[in-house]
Design brief:
This protein has 11 helices and 12 strands. By secondary structure, the chain is α/β, with parallel strands linked by helices. It has a 5-stranded mixed sheet with strand order 4-3-5-12-6. It starts with a helix and ends in a 6-residue tail after the last helix. The mean pLDDT is about 85.
Length: about 300
């Protein structure tokens, strides 16, 4: 039994897929399969059952997963504790992030963290906010970054970045800022799909104003904010998105962006983790690092992602 076999086993258990596990630890699927077969021969027990497209742990596999997780956490704790003597920090952090954080926040956070700890490797998975929470609950990710909160009894949330939502329009639509949502009934809209943190905030604010999404002329629901910006640029309609996401197209003169009367409160983005899963010292350090950047942003009044 070798250490890298345990790493492969834990990844397959968490990803419920040999191919996804192989991708996350930069190995071929055949190598991962060989590692699992070697462990099954060593213990004389089957570790996984195939259920459709997924693989799930057998009862023996569940017990082995518990001990392997303890071993890997202990390994990370050892490396972290000895870093002052060795000058080395090694390990992996798996981040699940919703669309806006994955595209506009996580890369900057990871780059800054790697300047401090260059020996770390990251895996970044993008989905909607609900998908991030599901990933955390399944134990597939160490840290989540998202724009809404779900499963409050299982997930711990820490605010780390605030911003406003803005209305974006094609260049030929000129409005007086701030714009009221009540002025926009005659325009076509593109919204994010259900499950998006941004969309959840939009619908909540509209409901508080006595409005509903169905009251507007909707031509489509997209699951990608980049696609929405491009669609608005091409004149398909208007949308309400994160200011951080709108910034590049707005500053390049590709779209217009407006503050909105009803959307005057800042929304929060959160760092999140599963309270039932022990955080590795490295994952905790990453969370502390992000929170320190947030405090710096508050003190200096500066957007940390620009």
């Amino acid at each position: 039994m070798q250490f890298h076999q345990l790493v492969a086993f834990v990844r397959v258990a968490e990803q419920k897929s040999f191919s996804k596990a192989a991708e996350s630890i930069f190995l071929s699927q055949s190598t991962v399969s060989t590692h699992i077969s070697s462990l099954e021969k060593h213990f004389g027990q089957k570790l996984f059952d195939r259920m459709g497209k997924e693989v799930i742990l057998t009862p023996f596999g569940e017990r082995l997963y518990y001990w392997c997780s303890q071993i890997l956490n202990l390994r990370d704790a050892m490396v972290w504790d000895l870093k002052e003597w060795t000058g080395k920090v090694e390990g992996s952090i798996y981040i699940a992030a919703s669309t806006v954080p994955a595209q506009y926040m996580a890369p900057s956070l990871i780059a800054r963290f790697l300047k401090k700890y260059p020996g770390i490797d990251f895996t970044l998975n993008q989905s909607d906010s609900q998908g991030v929470v599901e990933c955390l609950i399944r134990g597939e990710a160490d840290v989540g970054i998202l724009g809404d909160m779900y499963e409050l009894d299982k997930i711990k949330y820490t605010p780390f970045f605030s911003e406003k939502l803005v209305l974006i329009t094609p260049k030929d639509i000129i409005l007086a800022s701030p714009v009221s949502i009540l002025e926009l009934y005659d325009y076509s809209f593109i919204f994010r799909k259900a499950g998006s943190g941004t969309q959840a905030v939009v619908e909540k604010i509209m409901k508080e104003a006595g409005l509903a999404i169905k009251d507007f002329k909707i031509i489509g629901y997209f699951d990608n904010v980049q696609s929405i910006k491009q669609a608005v640029k091409e004149g398909m309609g208007l949308s309400i998105i994160s200011m951080t996401a709108a910034q590049d197209y707005f500053e390049s003169g590709l779209i217009n962006a407006y503050n909105m009367v009803e959307f005057n409160k800042e929304r929060e983005f959160y760092l999140a983790y599963n309270t039932q899963k022990t955080l590795s010292p490295l994952a905790q350090e990453f969370i502390d690092f992000c929170e320190a950047l947030h405090r710096e942003e508050i003190i200096n009044g500066k957007n940390i992602f620009r």
